[in-house]
Every structure is written in structure tokens, then in C-alpha cells.
Amino acid sequence: MKIFLIFFLVFISACTVSKNPLRKEIKQLQKGIIKDDTSYVYALPFESGKAHFLVQGYFGRFSHKERAALDFKMKRGTKVLAARDGVVTRVKEDSDKGGWNRKYRQFGNNIIVQHSDNTRAGYWHIQKGSALVNVGDTVKKGQVIALSGNTGYTAFPHLHFLAWKFNERGQWEQVPTRFLTSRGKKYLRSFHWYRNK
Fold this sequence. Notes:
The protein has 197 residues and is mainly beta. It has a single domain, classed as Distorted Sandwich (Glucose Permease (Domain IIA)), CATH 2.70.70.10. The protein is 12% helix and 34% strand. The strands form four sheets. Strands 2, 3, 5, 7, 8, 9, 12, 13 and 16 form a nine-stranded antiparallel sheet that branches.
């Protein structure tokens, strides 16, 4: 809990934010200023009936300044579920190192899943040896793929989720993600609890 409070204070006191135009678009989507009924609706990456706190959202001021990523606070060993059908393109599960320093970034265990529209989703900080899938496996939305952990650049155990695609120039572009929650389809916001249906 002490680490979480330190993280929270650093997060609140940070003063720089991203100038990425996607940040403004996501804020408008979250507030309902602009509507989107065409994007894919992801499942929350945890079990049905469970709720988790979103400690950092899109373009968060701590470590997401340039990332449309989400951090769900999860105890070590919590089941991580695929948010969408796809094919596993990467599995890293060999590390047991983690800490609140960028030098640990390379040790973050992760799983990457490619979807039918060529977008990808990444699930980071999973527990060492906990991957339940291999490269080349087909996964279904809601399938358990790993257990959450505290590997890589982390201040506390959590699941880092990010979706992206590659454009025609081969550059990666982040994809804002909306999720089906117990209260409907939402672009998630920091410091809120979200329950899976």
C-alpha cells in the first residue's frame, strides 16, 4: 500500500502531459463529446464478476505520457484473460525481476496477441513462468492466457494493457480501446473501478 501511495503522489505531482493529438481525442471519447460506435469493443482482461481499479489510464502523467495504455491494479497470480480473439505472436515469461526504475523495463514479461484486423494487444508484467499460451496459438476472447505479476518497470503488481496497429509506412500507431463493462461500453478512465460482466 505504501508503494501505491508514493506512486499516486508522484502521479498527481507530475506536470508534463503528452501533446499527442490522440490524447485529446480519447478525452473527448471518454466524456462523450464525440461518439464512436464503430470501434471494436474489447472484453476486460480479467474474470467475469471481478472488479479492478484502473490506476493509470491513457496518456497518464507517470509512465504513460506517450502511451494510450491502461494499468489495472492486480494482485500477483490474478488470472489475465484475452480481451479479444487472436493469434499469439510473442510470449516472454522468463524474468522474475521488477522494480520502480527504468533499468527494469527489459525484464517485463509479456504476451502479444494479433487480431483479425491486424491490430495487436499487449499484456505486460505477467508472472514468471505463468503464460498458458505459446507463439502461434489461437486464443479466444475471455480465455485465461497468464497470471498477473510485477515484472519489468513496475511500482506494484498490475496488468499493463496496450493496443496498436502498424500503418502503411510500417510505423506503429496506438489504438484507443473501449471495453464492455458492467455499466456498458466505456473508454476507461483513471482512478475508477471497473467490473467485468
